[in-house]
């Protein structure tokens, strides 16, 4: 098995890439007259955030063999993301229209099912050399079809065998699942195999059966997850580490659009953790301060995202982040 320090990619992000249409004005979907196209999909957003922070990132997923699929491929490649494993399918690229209320809360209207990003399969996983990857990050939201779920299971199996760190942000969209039972099965089966799990506060009951974040974290840690985290919006994030619960505050910002805040958090968290893994440290060997810094960077990137419209416009690049006032060097 190749040591982590000798691997080519810091993170493999796997799952959906689709096109977001962002509103130029707030209001109901039918009242918006002008829209702006942007790359979207949670794993693709995380990949973009990581690349802007200097991580070496590869993307694994499926887009349509159409104009929008070409747009997504160019957009990710333009961020420095390796897209050699992005497959083009005959089905159309998925699109999502996002509408915003006056507080920046978003609603999604998607035109998917079937669309290309849902066609992830074991054949896609078979193309991956996991010994070239330190961390594998994915979500569960697009695993609606049985073949996609089978592909995710195979990816987890092969990544664990290769010694990769496994990270999952379920990114639940329950309305997208005709029957939530298969999603629940994936949660129960896959989350305990993860090294890192990030849940939003409104996801914890479905994933853990607990309504209280502290109890949810204790349950997740007891299941064997090395670093479970619950994001709390403007209140920051709470995580469990070696039996302790630690809360990290989020920077105070004026929120414009909450879309992609969790993806930004994932990018910051994984960027910091991946930097540590380059020196062959295992996740359980990281110091308490290193873990706290990783969660803190997640909060910082998530806060930056909500200051701009869309999931990727607010993702900072590393030089900009390092030059922000008040940031320690």
Strand content: 15-25%
The order of strands across the largest sheet is: 5-4-1-8-9-10-11-12-13
Please, how many helices?
A: 10
Mean pLDDT: 92
Query: Which class best fits the helix and strand makeup?
Result: alpha/beta
Helical coverage, percent range: 25-40%
- Could you say which overall geometry the principal axes of the C-alpha atoms support? globular
Name the helix and strand elements from N-terminus to C-terminus, one letter apiece.
EEEHEHEEEHEHEHEHHEEEHHH
Radius of gyration from CA coordinates: 18 Å
**Number of DSSP E strands:** 13
Q: What ranges have pLDDT less than 50 throughout 5 or more consecutive residues?
A: none
Can you put this structure into words, describing what you see?
It is built from ten helices and 13 strands. It has helices at 42-52, 67-78, 122-125, 146-161, 181-190, 204-208, 213-222, 261-277, 288-305, 318-322; strands spanning 9-14, 18-23, 35-40, 57-64, 82-89, 95-100, 106-111, 133-138, 165-168, 196-200, 227-231, 237-241, 244-248. The strands form two sheets. The chain has a nine-stranded mixed β-sheet, with helices on both faces. Strands 3-2-6-7 form a four-stranded mixed β-sheet. The chain is globular and about 50 Å long. The model has no long low-confidence stretch (mean pLDDT 92).
Summarize the structure.
The protein is α/β, with parallel strands linked by helices. 33% of the residues lie in helices and 23% in strands. The longest helix is centred in the last third of the chain and has 18 residues, at 288-305.
């Amino acid at each position: 098995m190749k040591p982590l320090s000798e691997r080519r990619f810091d993170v493999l992000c796997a799952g959906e890439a689709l096109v977001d249409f962002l509103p130029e004005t707030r209001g109901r979907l039918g009242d918006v007259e002008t829209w702006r196209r942007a790359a979207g999909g949670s794993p693709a957003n995380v990949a973009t955030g990581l690349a802007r922070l200097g991580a070496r990132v590869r993307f694994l997923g499926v887009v349509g063999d159409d104009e929008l699929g070409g747009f997504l491929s160019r957009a990710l490649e333009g961020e420095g993301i390796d897209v050699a494993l992005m497959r083009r399918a005959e089905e159309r690229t998925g699109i999502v229209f996002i509408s915003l209320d006056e507080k920046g809360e978003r609603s999604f209207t998607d035109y998917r099912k079937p669309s290309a990003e849902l066609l992830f399969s074991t054949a896609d996983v078979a193309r991956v050399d996991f010994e070239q990857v330190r961390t594998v990050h994915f979500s569960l939201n697009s695993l609606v079809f049985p073949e996609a779920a089978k592909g995710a299971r195979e990816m987890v199996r092969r990544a664990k065998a290769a010694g990769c760190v496994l990270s999952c942000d379920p990114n639940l969209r329950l309305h997208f699942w005709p029957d939530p039972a298969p999603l629940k099965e994936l949660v129960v089966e896959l989350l305990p195999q993860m090294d890192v799990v990030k849940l939003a506060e409104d996801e914890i009951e479905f994933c853990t059966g607990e309504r209280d974040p502290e109890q949810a974290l204790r349950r997740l840690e007891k299941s064997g997850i090395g670093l479970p985290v619950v994001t709390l919006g403007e209140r920051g994030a709470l995580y469990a580490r070696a039996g302790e619960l630690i809360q990290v505050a989020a920077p105070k910002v004026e929120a414009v659009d909450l879309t992609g805040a969790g993806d930004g958090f994932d990018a910051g968290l994984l960027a910091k953790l991946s930097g540590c893994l380059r020196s062959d440290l295992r996740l359980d060997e990281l110091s308490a301060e290193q873990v706290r810094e990783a969660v803190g960077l997640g909060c910082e990137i998530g806060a930056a995202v909500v200051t701009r419209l869309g999931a990727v416009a607010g993702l900072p690049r590393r030089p900009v982040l390092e030059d922000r006032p008040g940031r320690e060097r």
